[in-house]
Amino acid sequence: MSQASMENLRKFVAPEFVFGVGARRLAGQFARNFSVRRVLVVVDEVVRGLPWTTDVLTSLDQASLEYRIFSDLSPNPRADEVMRGARYYLREDCQAIVALGGGSVLDCAKGIGIVCVNNRPILDFEGVDNVPVPGPPLVCIPTTAGSSADVSQFAIITDLARKVKIAIISKAMVPDIALIDPETTTSMSPHLTACTGYDALTHAVEAFASNASSPITDLHALEAVRLIAKHLPQAVEAPQDMEARSKMMLASLYAGLAFSNASLGATHAMAHSLGGLLDLPHGECNAILLSRIVNYNYEAAPERYLNVAEALGLDCRDLGLDEGRRILVDGLVALRKRIGLLRDLGDLGVSPDDIVALSRQAVRDPCMVTNPIHPCLEDIERLYARNHE
What does the alpha-carbon distance between residue 373 and residue 376 come to, in Å, rounded to a whole number? Predict the structure, then answer.
């Protein structure tokens, strides 16, 4: 396997983005640049009641733009919700979308856009490069530091009928504008901060270990790991610390640019399966699974994982393979516990009876393709069944 080789062809896509406190207030200005009259604002009911939404709507008013609000969506966005949003968009004659929220909201907005333009059900776009025509202009304003949906080629949608999360991966899913405002993350609870922050860490680690990595994605991935190791505990412990919040938002941006272009691995494949079957929180699932997957993958890319350990502030140099692996795995578990993510899969309601169905879905997930090792079904079953660390 050749990773991050200068001889390998690699592409890199990213949206235009503005980073900094107050970026959310530019929503009207950027939406107006698309020469539209009316926009659909996609926001969940929690964020709708926060000051950030008022700021965004005020900016649209100041830009003399009409807007309609769609907020009928779940923490793990469902196909039927995307379709309802698309019908509302078309009925209200909108010409662009402004999405404000966490990854679920941003993914739902991406789905609404491609359904409206392509006139097809959202589930038709499952897989890689299956979106014929990009959606309408899309402005994304993230309110969590973790999903990176505001800069990525990914959208994850739940198919309730099959009890699976589908991945839609296409450069057509990259938003036109990302307005990345660290201040919006100060309304997150410590638990949500921990879950989304560890999600960003998982993005970075899996992108760096991916067999589709490149020198460009490596740069972003390792810097994301360094920032998260230094600032995530403080963001959890002191939610109003703007330096910690800003550094975590920057880490999420870096991790998003990395995984959007290098893809992910078995951790995300297995977390998607958990979310689809049991509607579990994505970031917490990643936090539980990452150390297991690193332990499993380690021998396939030891130098890569030693670089991750160094970025985390762990000293694994001049150690044997087994000792280096142990220190990295223990370090990942220690960070998870330090930020209060103490539950295991059993605590989340996963039973032994679920493992076969979970494994069958995970092994088919597109993220599994870029894992350093291509696991068999039995490997995935064993990884799900591992005891609490």
Answer: 9
Residue type present at position 241: D
Share of the chain above pLDDT 70, in %: 97
Query: Would you place residue 386 in the very low, low, confident or very high pLDDT band (cuts 50, 70, 90)?
Result: confident
Alpha helices in the chain, H assignment, sequence order: 27-32, 45-48, 51-62, 79-91, 103-118, 190-209, 215-237, 242-262, 266-278, 282-297, 302-311, 321-338, 355-362, 377-385
Question: Which burial class, exposed, middle or buried, applies to 163 when counting CB atoms under 10 A from its CB (0-12, 13-18, 19+)?
Answer: middle
Estimate the crossing angle of helix 302-311 against helix 190-209, to 10 degrees: 140
Please calculate the CA angle 51-54-56 and round it to the nearest 5 degrees: 110
d(CA 112, CA 135): 8
Rounded CA gap, 69 and 71, in Å? Answer: 6
3-class DSSP state of 8: coil
Identify the band that residue 7 occupies on the pLDDT scale cut at 50, 70 and 90: low
What is the model's pTM?
Answer: 0.96
Taking the C-alpha atoms of residue 252 and residue 265, their distance in angstroms, rounded to an integer, is 17
Q: Give the per-residue pLDDT at 316.
A: 82
Query: Is residue 40 a contact partner of residue 94, using CB atoms and an 8 Å limit?
Result: yes
Question: How far is Cα 344 from Cα 346, in angstroms, rounded to an integer?
Answer: 5
Phi, psi of 126, rounded to the nearest 5 degrees: -55, 140
- Alpha-carbon Rg for the chain, nearest whole angstrom, is 20
Domains (ranges, CATH) in the chain?
16-185 (3.40.50.1970), 190-385 (1.20.1090.10)
- Chain segment 22-57, per-residue pLDDT in tens: 999 999 999 999 999 999 999 999 999 999 999 999
In this predicted structure, what is the pLDDT of residue 217?
98
pLDDT at 243 over 90: yes
Structure tokens at 51: 């000051």
Tokens describing residue 210: 């991916």
Confidence of residue 10 (pLDDT cuts 50, 70, 90): confident
